[in-house]
Amino acid sequence: MKKNLLLRRLVIPTFASLIAVASPLITLGAAAKEKVPQETSPSTLREPETGFRVLPYLQSPTSTSMTISWVSELNEPGNVIITGPGIKMKKLISAPHYMELMEYTEKELKQELTYNSGNGVVETIPQGSWLKSNSNYKHSVTIDGLQPNSTYHITVKQGKGTHTSRFETFPERENWDKLKLIAFSDSETEPFGALEHREWELHTVNPYAPGSEERPGKGSAFDKKYGNAARNNMFLVRYSLDQQTALNENLAHIEKEDPDALIITGDLTQGSGYQPGWDEFWRHFAGEFTDIASKTPILPALGNWETYAAINSGYGSDADRTPAVISRNRFHEYFDTPGDAENPQFKDSYYRTDMGPVTLLTLDSTNGIPDESTVTKTFTGSVYSGNDSVLKELVWAEQGVNGDPYITTDTQGEFTAESYYDAYTKVFKGTTTKDSDLPNFNPGTEQYKWAERQLKDAREKGQIILVQFHHAAYSSGVHGTPPNHTKADNQSGVAMRVYSPLFEKYGVATVISGHDEMFERSWVDLDGDGRGFHSYDVGVAADGLRGEKMIKDENGNYVPQDYNTYTQWSATQDEPEFWQTNKNGVKQLIDGGLHYGHLQMDFVKTANGTELTLTPVYIFPILDDNYDLVRTERRVYHDVQKIHFDKMGNVIPNVELISKSDFSGRRI
After folding, report:
1. What is the structure's pLDDT at 42?
2. Residue 183 · residue 512 · CB < 8 Å
3. Which 3 state secondary structure label does DSSP give 10?
4. DSSP for 429-484?
5. What dihedral do alpha carbons 214, 220, 224, 229 form, nearest 10°?
6. Beta-carbon contacts of residue 353 (< 8 Å; ≥ 6 apart)
7. Residue 471 — φ and ψ, nearest 5°?
8. Report field, pTM of the whole predicted structure over 0.90
9. pLDDT at residue 576 tops 90
10. CB-CB neighbours of 238 under 10 Å
């Protein structure tokens, strides 16, 4: 049986609006369990075409300027016409430059995509149908002299293509009423996402709400529709939305909210060194699915997948780390962000964005020193077991291992800093290791010193301070334990806790991260003065649907490891599923459970300062009796948080929150 992917998307209209997809999907019957043989010769790429390969997208937003970037396939200058307050009509001409790093590799040209959902059904996409031409030209123009908190209209002409849009400049600190930011992480786009339905984790201790039936089981209609997987010794039906549809639906709900900026906290693609992953990313953000990035600035952070090349040798090998270098620099090529002016070699890996009363610091958490690795058994601190209560993060910056024998210093155990520096000189001829774009994040490094300066400056100016970086420092997920733990992870974010004392000192309100592909909030108050910060994992953009890390207890049962003692809420632990059989005899999920979504942050100016509402949003799929998608609904988890600030951006302690925790912020 053959089924066209376009028809599969259009059987029933969804909230994301009748999305057209170019690649047909072939579905084989249950008996066809063997991989389907396909041609392995390189794909025949189409010739470069006029117009846009990537539609215009907004970068480096301020109250008085905006950068417009886009990608074409032909070496032709583009024209930008802008109108709005103070500008009758301004015309700018772009100067395209060729993006050599974005050329497809031989492996990408030969790649086949075949998906086995676990129920005997195998799906494929015709080989190479997701590829475009092998030509990429970057265009960027910066528009200065704009007025704060104003709407401008732009028309970009590229060859025979024309795109129109509008954007709003940020307000000034003293002249604003409302501000809305939305954050998520781990979109991890790839063409395979049109096929794959991810495993859907269920909490082993608290899976169902009172009165709920159990999930559909093996051989059920749900299993036959979407397949199954196993995790933590549990049979799991796969999620009802494939990754491509999930991101489209998530973005559709985000677009409806019309945020002032979209924060993407790393792992944008399923490997930054994998060009089809970028093609898919831009289809969602500035292409055929949506043009949200043409209206809403994207504020991205680097994640571990930004140093990963997927089928192009992953992180590389000890002998050759160039795949990691190429991956990071593909990210740099696409994004234009303000960085550390004193250290331009880092290519804007970390940067500051001021949005009226709010300052967002974006840090690069992808590598720390001294290097650590579970593979080579290289650790800065001693190996330990149990939870994180033994750690003394308050003294890490000043005393290091002398102050805390269990300290950890690295988030990336796949390669060393030195191996990356050496590989950089091989990719970029004529450079030295000092020219490397990889900043480390530890005390004494340029990034750490820059972060402290920016925190101090923002506090002195009375800003509300947010921070984003990819590797969640406080997590109950699989990446939650450091490399020197008996239940270790080789890419843990625990080392980023070295910043926590700085965050408390300068009154950071919220830290936004991802990496563990779960939805979790922790509350951190190391010095017990009642003034701490929320730490979020918002890795629910469109990829994995993971929960707490489970380990076997003395009876052989899987139970939460409970390493992160600062956790306050997570979707898998605190939002149990409720299933019910309807009048037609079909078991349906009524509510609860882990779903794709995002964190919405609404700032409202008040008479005494500012109120910030942090809303964990999930995108709930409504299915018919055949388990086909009817629509998705925007729903809110039971963990809405409010933070109040005085007129100088200082957090006013939340007495209700403190009462639920001990003075350190640990859950009681």
Report:
1. 60
2. yes
3. helix
4. TT--GGG-S----STTSHHHHHHHHHHHHHHHTT-EEEEEEEE-SS-SSTT-S-TT
5. 40
6. 61, 261, 299, 338, 359, 360, 362
7. -80, 105
8. yes
9. yes
10. 22
Instruction: Kindly tell me the number of DSSP H helices and DSSP E strands found in the chain.
Output: 13, 32
Tokens of 351: 């940067």
The mean pLDDT value for 292-301 works out to: 98
Cα 199 from chain centre: 18
Name the DSSP class of 566.
T
Structure tokens at 140: 């960027």
Query: What φ, ψ does residue 514 adopt, rounded to 5°?
Result: -145, -130
Q: How many CA atoms lie within 13 A of 621 on its CB side?
A: 23
Strands 178-184 and 351-355: unpaired
CA–CA separation, 308 vs 415, rounded Å?
11
SS3 289: coil
In 121-260, DSSP assigns E strands to 122-125, 137-143, 151-158, 161-168, 178-184, 228-231, 234-237
**Helix, strand, or coil (residue 244):** helix
Q: Tell me, what's the pLDDT at 41?
A: 52
Structure tokens at 361: 């610091």
Separation between Cα atoms, residue 45 and residue 105, nearest integer Å? 12
User: E-assigned strands of 96-150?
Assistant: 97-98, 113-116, 122-125, 137-143
Q: Distance (Å, rounded) from C-alpha 655 to C-alpha 382?
A: 37
Angstrom CA distances, 236 to 203, 226, 545, stand at 11, 11, 12
Residue positions counted in the chain = 668
Tokens read off for 267: 């792992």
- Reading phi first (left if > 0) and then psi (alpha if -120 to 50, else beta), residue 526 is in alpha
480 contact partners, CB below 8 Å, separation of at least 6: 472, 474, 489, 492, 493, 494, 516, 549, 561, 563, 564
Dihedral sign of CA atoms 332, 514, 59, 276 in order: positive
The gap from C-alpha 54 to its chain's centroid, in whole angstroms, comes to 20
Q: Which two tokens stand for residue 251?
A: 């973005």
- Checking if the pLDDT of 17 tops 50, the result is no
Look at residues 194, 33, 190 and name the one whose alpha carbon lies nearest to residue 116: 33
